[in-house]
Specification:
about 600 residues; Arc Repressor Mutant, subunit A; Serine Threonine Protein Phosphatase 5, Tetratricopeptide repeat; Rossmann fold; 5 domains; 6-stranded parallel sheet; 3-stranded antiparallel sheet; about 50% helix
């Protein structure tokens, strides 16, 4: 448990993930209680004499350990690596090489090899290993650019033997060998990799590596010029520079100051691992926040900010090959693209190599879908939005987007219909914000209707929205609709979780505790708690109180959003005869702002 919490330091690790890591597919009936006991024991063990030890706390739906880079080598490594890359972007290769070298020298071997039987820990360890190799490649390329090739050769030879399919590593090895007067050895390394790629993957070396081979073969004098990226094609640089496929950032984006600051800090801080995941219920404005921040980060990502939608118009997950095609078009590639996912992934890696880019992956359905794209993203920074908490996404920092507070919701309504109408009926405006549950999409729909119906008072419209039987019918303005968004979130669930949610919607009490509904769910308290936690991760159920970890013995109460409850009751009664409408980029992505 400690190993996994440290691997995901400063991020919440859900109880479900901890349970899987600790017991695989056979958790005991007391698994949740055991984890509470482990957490309490760890909290006592982690207390330092000076009071500056890591802080472990219960953070629904899981646990979080707060720790600084001076206390954890993995965070210190990430901080040094990020600082080194910043120096490289500023043009100071010597300072960059020094910082990257410090990061590389922190590495002492495989991460937590004694815990490799826990798949979640093994996945995190593998990700850290990838980050080390990427940092080492940056450092080696920088040292080569500074002319320090002789002291790299043997170390590069050893790493290339252990990681024979890494082309950047092979590129650096070949160049170091050639500059050390070992032309034959450099050519032999290319031939070794060519045969290995053909035998293992049925692929050929990348064009970048092939160009280096040709240059070594002909004794190209440019190989002795110390310049990073000397052999990268100029056409790729030209097509990726200052590209943006973002949708526009609306002028009335309001509130979210804390969330914007948090997300910008996530992306720019030294220990950020390259992925920030924004989750929240349908219509809460996840895409709007990601796009707004992406526009704000223009100077930091001069080579491009590219948007890719991961969900099709029918609400299903898009194929990775289609998403990769969008990203390739977004960075400016024209003409016929490769047909297969593997070829498109390779082309994206090559086209973005050495570039400072931001990718926004919108409306992810699952961790697996995101991973298939991340594998091709290289060193790009990635923002992911999703309707569910992507707790299994390795090395991601997470931001849960909550509904707007009342003041911000009322302010947004004022921007849409005019502040004078809100000032004339402040109590009715607050009632409208309450009925909309603080969801920006619902508030935008209300604003669009009121803006077109100037004769309709806010009080009268608020009265209409209090009728559950017509609420979702009222929350429609042109192609802005809330019902289809809720339908997609519902369809994303497993059949068992949908059945559990239907049961919860039928409860008469506004809140419930797990022991109260375990029997109705047809299971014991422990398994019922796991079901509720999955629904929390899907942002369809929320905890209305958070007890201390030692006192957390079934006392926490949960609730459904009133809008979710209305949707489910409507569906159960058969009142909704509509099929889910299209979920396109202009739907939640614009309406959810």
């Amino acid at each position: 448990m400690l190993g996994l919490l440290l691997c995901r330091a400063n991020r919440t690790v859900s109880v479900a993930v901890l349970t899987e890591a600790l017991w695989h597919d056979e958790p005991p009936r007391t698994a949740h209680k055991n984890i509470q006991v482990y957490g309490s024991a760890l909290r006592k063990l982690l207390v330092a004499e000076d009071g500056a030890g890591p802080r472990l706390r219960h953070n629904p739906p899981g646990y979080l350990i707060q720790i600084g880079p001076d206390q954890l080598d993995a965070l210190q490594f990430a901080e040094l690596a990020r600082a080194g890359r910043i120096e490289l972007r500023r043009g100071d290769a010597a300072a960059g090489a020094d910082l990257l070298g410090q990061a590389v020298r922190l590495w002492r071997g495989p991460v937590l090899p004694e815990l490799s039987s826990a798949q979640a820990v093994a996945d995190e360890a593998e990700q850290l290993g990838e980050q080390y190799l990427s940092t080492y490649e940056d450092w080696a390329e920088t040292k080569l650019a500074l002319g320090h090739h002789t002291d790299l050769v043997e170390e590069l030879n050893g790493l290339a033997r252990h990681h024979p399919l890494r082309e950047r590593l092979r590129h650096a090895q070949m160049l170091a060998l050639y500059r050390s007067g070992r032309q034959t050895d450099a050519l032999a390394q290319f031939d070794t990799m060519r045969q290995l790629l053909a035998r293992e993957l049925g692929l050929r070396p990348s064009p970048v590596l092939a160009r280096l081979y040709e240059a070594i073969l002909t004794g190209d004098p440019s190989l002795h010029v110390a310049a990073l990226g000397r052999l990268r094609p100029a056409s790729v640089r030209a097509t990726t520079a200052e590209r943006s496929s973002l949708i526009r950032d609306v002028g009335d984006f309001t509130g979210r100051e804390h969330e914007v600051e948090t997300l910008l800090d996530m992306v720019t801080r030294a220990d950020h691992r390259g992925i920030a995941a924004i989750s929240g219920p349908a219509g809460v404005g996840k895409t709007a926040l990601a796009v707004h921040c992406a526009h704000r980060l223009g100077e930091r990502f001069p080579d491009g900010r590219i948007l890719g939608c991961l969900r099709a118009s029918d609400g299903r997950a898009r194929a990775a090959a289609d998403v990769l095609g969008d990203l390739l078009r977004g960075i400016g590639l024209t003409g016929a693209l490769p047909d297969t996912e593997e070829e498109r992934a390779a082309l994206l890696r090559e086209s973005t190599a050495g570039r400072v880019m931001l990718l926004v992956l919108d409306d992810a359905v699952s961790e697996t879908q995101v991973r298939s794209v991340l594998a091709a993203a290289g060193d790009s920074v990635v923002l992911v939005t999703s309707r569910r908490h992507l707790g299994g996404l390795e090395s991601a920092t997470h931001l849960v987007l909550e509904p707007l507070p009342e003041a911000e919701a009322v302010r947004l309504l004022g921007l849409l219909i005019g502040p004078e109408r809100v000032a004339a009926e402040p109590e009715a405006a607050r009632r409208l914000a309450e009925v909309c549950c603080g969801l920006p999409l619902a508030i935008r729909i209300v604003g669009a209707k009121l803006a077109g119906l100037r004769h309709l008072t806010l009080a009268r419209y608020a009265e209409r929205l209090t009728d559950e039987r017509r609420l979702l019918d009222e929350l429609v303005a042109g192609d802005l609709q809330l019902r289809p968004r809720l339908a997609v979130s519902y369809q994303d669930l497993t059949p068992d979780d949908r059945a559990a949610l239907d049961l919860l919607a039928a409860l008469t009490a506004p809140t419930f505790a797990v022991p109260e509904i375990a029997g109705s769910l047809g299971t014991d308290v422990s398994r019922a708690e796991v079901t509720i936690e999955r629904l929390i991760e899907a942002h369809l159920v929320e905890a209305v109180e958070a007890d201390d970890v030692e006192a957390h013995s079934g006392g926490t109460r949960y609730s459904l959003s009133p809008l979710i409850r209305v949707f489910l009751r409507e569906r159960h009664s058969g009142a909704a005869s509509r099929s889910p409408a299209s979920t396109t980029l202009s739907g939640e992505d614009v309406g959810g702002r």
